[in-house]
Amino acid sequence: MSLLAEDTEAADLGLRWKPGFAALGPAFFTELRPTPLPGPYWVGRSEAVARELGLPTDWHESKATLAALTGSMPVAGARPIATVYSGHQFGVWAGQLGDGRAIMLGETEGGLEVQLKGAGRTPYSRGGDGRAVLRSSIREFLCSEAMHGLGIPTTRALCVTGSDAPVYREEIESAAVVTRVAPSFVRFGHFEHFAANQRDEELRALADYVIDRYYPACRTTDRFGGNAYAAFLEAVSERTAALLAQWQAVGFCHGVMNTDNMSILGLTIDYGPFQFLDGFDPRHICNHSDTQGRYAFNQQPNVAYWNLFCLAQALLPLIGDQEVAVAALESYKTVFPNEFEGRMRAKLGLTEAAEGDRPLIEGVLKLLAAGKVDYTIFWRRLSGYMADGNVEPVRDLFLDRAGFDAWLLSFSQRHAGTDRALAAELMRRSNPKFVLRNHLGQQAIEASQQKDHSGVATLLALLQTPFEEHPGADAYAGFPPDWASTIEISCSS
Ligand code: AMP
Ligand code: MG
């Protein structure tokens, strides 16, 4: 019987729920209720996600909805659960983890799971308070929508709601809840959990569920002699490779690529100490707690492969043959570089591959790294140069002018005969003007902490369409101020 059967009062969000993940049975989760927060208020909302969910247009006007999305009132028809998973954290087996502060309301009829992150303790909280602070919730909200705006696979975020309830971190902060949305929140760690506990039956049930729901083509493939689990591993590897190519091309550093933070759908998930690079530094470490630099920017593609290896190991009892499992990972090694080159080619305004593209790409990255040139600004100015022929704004970014001129010559030669207007348009669509730089998030957060949430809305609007010019918003597309480099962001907050 549902825990909610006794509720007399519940908020009707206008959504219809189906069993979804919960149909797997109680070995996979614990049924529970969010812990209410007092005095909830809106901090930010994404109407785009509201539409995706099929919420009524006046969804945010209801006090009951606000309370429900803060965990303070049950949601009609929902059956909230916290799921169990394990994982490797910083390269070390961490054992059981699980949704320690995210509570899943369920899956909508439209096939989207809805989670409240920061909605209180669960059996998987491991001593944590089950809460998320306003600061990290705003960052997750904005970055989810920013990634989507950039065309990068990600979990989405409907809203952030806040409460003045105190949360104890290094200092006292206030609580918030992010309502997250994704077709599935299943992680590599879910598979690792059942494999590590030698629970092959549950492992198989989980794999079958994920394959049937999200990778049905694996059922009918000829790959690996029709081994659906191997085909599944290969498909996850390919999606992960494509995701990593997008991260590297846009200059996104995730910061905590533990296997429990790896989506089985190849989505960007669990926004913590992430960062969009300012000055290009391949060795940049955005997570203040990552003292060894395991998750440095240039390590990400290798770490993803390492994480896929953990997934392969977990799936081994189903795949049945180690060699086949290893073979299923192989395509990562070709998909990643191909996708990465494709993304970089688009950034350079090139529609077709040609010999010499790789040195052209490597050459510009080397120059950017040598001068710690601002990554986003460089690419946007290069797009401008393609449009108007004025090279000075790009050239001005480099101290090594001779080096830049030499590269520009090869770039121009590669573009001989190009339709510049077309190339400029491709570049404009491939090189965002706006990314969620740390200092921009920080400014919006500080205002929100003073109860002015307009900065969150302003940033959201820019980040949802980051390739548009947005005249009048140039201040959000400029160089970071000096203090930006002093922002320290670490793991759970
Ligand atoms: P993260 O680094 O945010 O991906 O979290 C790693 C693990 O710690 C997950 O199992 C989280 O659910 C859990 N966790 C993080 N912060 C908290 C918290 N404040 N309370 C309870 N569990 C948490
Ligand atoms: Mg996590």
How would you characterize the overall build of this protein?
The protein is of the alpha+beta class. The strands form four sheets. Strands 1, 3, 7, 8, 9, 10 and 11 form a seven-stranded antiparallel β-sheet that branches. The protein has 16 helices and 13 strands. Residues 97-101, 124-125, 128-131, 256, 261, 270, 272, 491-492 line the site of adenosine monophosphate (AMP).
Keywords:
binds magnesium ion; globular; 16 helices; about 40% helix; disordered N terminus; 7-stranded antiparallel sheet; alpha+beta; about 500 residues; 13 strands
Helix/strand order: EEEHHEEEEEEHEEHHHEEHHHHHHHHHH
Uncertain stretches: 1-6
- Provide mean pLDDT, rounded: 96
Q: Please report which band the strand proportion falls in: under 5%, 5-15%, 15-25%, 25-35%, 35-45% or over 45%.
A: 5-15%
Ions, cofactors and other bound molecules: adenosine monophosphate, magnesium ion
Estimated structural class: alpha+beta
In brief, what are we looking at here?
The chain is an alpha+beta fold. It is built from 16 helices and 13 strands. The radius of gyration is 23 Å and the shape is globular.
Give the topology, please.
Blueprint: E1 17-18, E2 29-31, E3 41-45, H1 47-53, H2 63-68, E4 81-83, E5 86-89, E6 92-96, E7 102-108, E8 113-117, E9 132-133, H3 134-150, E10 156-168, E11 172-182, H4 188-196, H5 200-214, H6 228-250, E12 252-253, E13 275-276, H7 300-319, H8 322-329, H9 332-347, H10 357-370, H11 375-388, H12 392-395, H13 401-414, H14 420-430, H15 438-449, H16 454-464
Antiparallel strand pairs: 1-7, 2-4, 3-10, 5-6, 7-8, 8-11, 9-11, 10-11, 12-13
Helix pairs in contact: 3-15, 3-16, 4-5, 4-7, 6-7, 6-8, 6-9, 7-8, 10-13, 11-14, 15-16
The protein binds adenosine monophosphate (AMP) and magnesium ion (MG).
